[in-house]
Q: What sequence folds into this?
């Protein structure tokens, strides 16, 4: 099954959740500048496509540099990630995910949260795109998932998408 190109990279600031799957099995999501309830629903609907696809992947999640997610939206995301279906599909399909959190304070808070809440698949909070790529490409290799592109080309293309929008 070929890539499900759903990428839009021209809008700034980002107002919708975007999925970049041209580098499958590396999936990249870009969150909006300001999260809303609608964005959380978009995210859930977007992941459903990949859950139905049923192929293993690694995930990089990024957001624009000054992205804001209020308590209500954080609760909605947490509720969604804790549903049995999402946990089961994530455990089965996602070999690892990295969330780019540029703020050291916010990254520390996310890391501390992971001590209490165990994600369904391996997860790492990272400072930048390079660290996210190091982790996710290593997870794909450890799971013996073949890549259509070389790791170097995947890195270059992923950086273009992430760095343009973040």
A:
């Amino acid at each position: 099954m070929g890539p499900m190109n759903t990428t839009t990279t021209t809008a700034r600031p980002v107002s919708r959740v975007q999925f970049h799957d041209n580098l499958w099995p590396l999936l990249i999501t870009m969150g909006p500048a300001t999260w809303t309830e609608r964005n959380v629903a978009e995210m859930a609907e977007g992941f459903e496509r990949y859950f139905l696809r049923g192929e293993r992947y690694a995930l990089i999640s990024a957001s624009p540099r000054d992205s804001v997610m209020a308590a209500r939206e954080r609760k909605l995301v947490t509720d969604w990630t804790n549903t049995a279906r999402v946990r089961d599909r994530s455990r089965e399909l996602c070999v690892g995910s990295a969330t780019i959190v540029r703020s050291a304070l916010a990254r520390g808070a996310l890391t501390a949260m992971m001590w209490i809440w165990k994600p369904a698949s391996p997860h790492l909070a990272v400072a930048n795109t390079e660290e996210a790529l190091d982790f996710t490409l290593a997870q794909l290799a450890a799971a013996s998932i073949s890549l259509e592109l070389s790791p170097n080309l995947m890195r270059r293309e992923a950086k273009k998408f992430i760095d343009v929008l973040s």
About this structure: Confidence is low (pLDDT under 50) at residues 1-11.
